[in-house]
Specification:
The protein has 181 residues and is mainly β. It is built from one helix and 17 strands. The model has no long low-confidence stretch (mean pLDDT 88).
């Protein structure tokens, strides 16, 4: 059974337990600590890109065969397809590090200026769907938008602005892309 949960990083009041839009998780840390297999976490688009300049985000909880974990962005209604926007910069490590297995991540817009990966996903059978992932770094260092291993991306826009010969929009190992630009 899927449990609907909510995250709204602009929310100033509420219980911070994710059980409703009024009591949505207020931080990535509170969401991460509470999310279990079977949760669908609906991320409300914030007024501006949600920024984590120095720490980035990680998520390591895994789904089970019958109980997936789903992250999806929205603005007004859950199925409106609007993307939750994240902004990173100033770090040399991955800005969003997904190691949990079997996740479905929908409607995320992740932008960062990293000398490594903006999104690093090594969670087996994780799927990014309808996401935008852009590395805006322009130095000669390695710049990657999405680095995936044993995961998939479908209908995503992925870009890097790096000028190095070792800069890639996508680096993948045993992974798949479908309908991505």
């Amino acid at each position: 059974m899927i449990t609907e949960m909510y995250a709204n990083f602009d929310l100033a009041t509420g219980a911070d337990d994710g059980t409703s839009e009024a009591d949505a998780y207020k931080t990535w840390a509170s969401m991460k600590a509470a999310t279990v297999a079977g949760d669908r976490v609906n991320f409300k688009k914030t007024a501006s890109r949600h920024s984590s300049v120095s720490t980035g985000y990680s998520f390591a909880t895994s789904s089970t065969d019958l109980l997936p974990i789903i992250f999806r962005g929205y603005e007004t209604t859950i199925t409106d397809g609007v993307k939750m926007q994240f902004l990173f910069g100033g770090t040399s490590s991955a800005s969003m590090d997904i190691t949990g297995e079997g996740l479905l991540i929908q409607n995320f817009d992740v932008e960062g200026s990293s000398t490594n990966d903006v999104v690093n996903c090594s969670g087996d059978c994780t799927l990014f769907e309808s996401c935008i992932i852009v590395n805006t770094g322009t130095t000669a260092a390695l710049h990657t938008g999405l680095r995936i291993s044993d995961a998939y991306a479908n209908n995503c826009y992925i870009e890097t602005n790096g000028t190095s010969a070792t800069s890639y929009a996508v680096r993948m190992q045993q992974a798949g892309l479908s309908n991505c630009t």
